[in-house]
Amino acid sequence: MDPILQAALAQPAITLFGAVRIDLAGIGSMTGPLCLLDGAATVVIDGESYSGSHDIYGTIDSIDAIEEGEGEEAPEISLTLNVPQASGSADLAGPAMQGREVRVMVGALDPVSGLVIGQPEIIFLGEIDVPTLSISQGERTVTFTVISVFERLFEVEDGVRAQDGWHQSIWPGERGFAFMTGIDKNLYWGGKPPTSTSLTLAQRMANIRSSALSNVSRWS
After folding, report:
1. Secondary structure of the chain as H, E, C letters
2. pTM over 0.90
């Protein structure tokens, strides 16, 4: 934790705030992140302006408690936004939102200057897994299931190959494997390569010749 923020939290009275940053670059008319606060205020964090509401994408409705993962599950949270515009809810619930970065922060404000004290603490960093749109009378919400970045540790890299075609499918135009030789060889990590019990005809003839020469030299 930032030492300046830590010192402020030790004071008997402190003004706290919660902040959410969602990567919305390229979504609708957005060219940068959606930066929201949990209250009616405006603060600047790392050069980005955070406010209590957005004209299109609304306000923070709720953030569930962070749930610890078990076994093959990563930690996750549920984040709900009240969205005033139908176009905004369509953007937030669209497939392009999956994988977008989400940061949840807690910080402190100077009650006199209104400036952020120190550096807010990031209490959750993850990516959107599933957006869910809910519409009821007089209310429109979008709820995000946000999974921890540790979720990527559970991804199975099926189909990964050390060859040019696969490499360029991930990094187009990067031709690091295009002119390499020997990358079709099997590499055995942590053990010896398997031994083959089948010999080619040339190998058999070479073994017979070697055995014959050995016998000749033994009796000569």
Report:
1. CCHHHHHHHCCCCCEEEEEEEECCCCCCCCCCCEEEECCCCEEEECCEEEECCECCCEEEEEECCCECCCCCCCCEEEEEEECCCHHHHHHHCCHHHCCCEEEEEEEEECCCCCCECCCCEEEEEEEEEEEEEEEECCEEEEEEEEEEHHHHHHCCCCCCCCCHHHHHHHCCCCCCCCCCCCCCCCCCCCCCCCCCCCCCHHHHHHHHHHHHHHHHHHHC
2. no
